[in-house]
Amino acid sequence: MIKRIEWKRVWARKYAPYIASTFMRVFMTKPGFDMCKNKLFLPEGGINAIYFAEDEFSQLIKNATELLMKDDMRQFAEEYENTFRKFLSWAENFSKTDFSSLSDKEIIAKLEECSRNITESAEDQFFSFVVLEGPGRELEKMLSLYSNKEKIKQWIATPYKETKLTKIRLELLKMMKERKTSEKELKDYAERNRWITVYEFVDKPFTIDDAREIMAHIKDPEKEIENIKAINKDNLNNYNEFIKSIDDEKLKKTAKIMHYFTYLKEMRDDYRRHAYYLLAPFINELAKRAGMTLIEVNQLIHKEIVDAIKTHDPGYKKKAQARQKKYSLLFKDGELSIFDYDISPDYIKEQESGKESEIKGVVANKGKVTGKVNIIFHRNDFSKFRQGDVLVTPMTHPEFMPVIKKAIAIITDEGGITCHAAITAREFGVPCIIGTKIATKALKDGDRVEVDADSGIVRKL
Known about the structure:
The structure is a single chain. Among the domains are: 206 residues, no CATH class; 103 residues, Glucose Oxidase, domain 1. The protein contains 17 helices and 13 strands.
């Protein structure tokens, strides 16, 4: 009798099949972290959700936690960031190739190299989610006994240094403060930072118009700079004092792990976004060889791209166009299959959503407001967001700043104390509830809700 797999939903994102399928290969090769042979990537609203086999994911969490509890976190953090430095360095060298001069055989060999390096980097990227589900959840339980647990979470979840993306944001604030925002200065700023909006290969690079859009929602740049610096300074001082006060060694080490990963989780974007930006010309060349657009070629998985280049079979273009609407991925015992439809009914028990009058989550920043829901999956949705809307999303990312500044509250499906939404909400004083699991499914655009971030409850009105 075949054992029935119990599936655990880990996160949901908007990814095309090529990059999603490379990500799905994680935790299958490295000794000690090679147990996750069964995964799903299923349609869910306007995005896809990734599921791991629950027993495999539990073992992965156990192995990762044991590693971190024994490791020196300062040394681990440096080694962890170095893996991303190496990935970016590889992308920089790779992108110097004149891809148009290569034969089809040579371009396919380059695709093998590209896919391999993306998968290896993805395993490092995914490690942060494993930490959130392991030490992150454990820390939440440990802190539940503290009367000031929300404050302690803020201290722990303050990055110990600035990411590149934070520095780039502060640079624009400084330019505004010093009135250095001429056409030329903004053009130079945008040109240097074109990679910051590239979440995957099909995303458009950052432009001077994007910079202006951000600026339009900054009322007082000097105050914003001071606020960021003051909050971080105070929280870091309080974190250090808290760590000194802990007698429980397990709590102390778990708090340190999550403090380091507050920076490390956000740091990943500093390198992978830049790398994906550099790889875009190569993906464009693949599209040209396969007789497709950039968007279309990304709808194929690795072996299909190879075959499309070799055969020029028009059937692949039709598959790619169909998958822009919906697709599913399945890894079964380490073997990948792709489907041009939703296979959820065959694997996941249907859960009712939309009937809940209350949605519960974790308080990330306190406050209580009432407003209209606006669900955002990707930056392509930003234009529909209005001032005073309640932002509902799987999880925020650095490019969400223009909509965050308009939002009166933030509600996410995912997240823990170190997530981007929690950190940003505290910075701007916006009520925020994270980890609801179902907000993007249970709510719809235009729903009027009360966001009670004092108690972690969203009520439909």
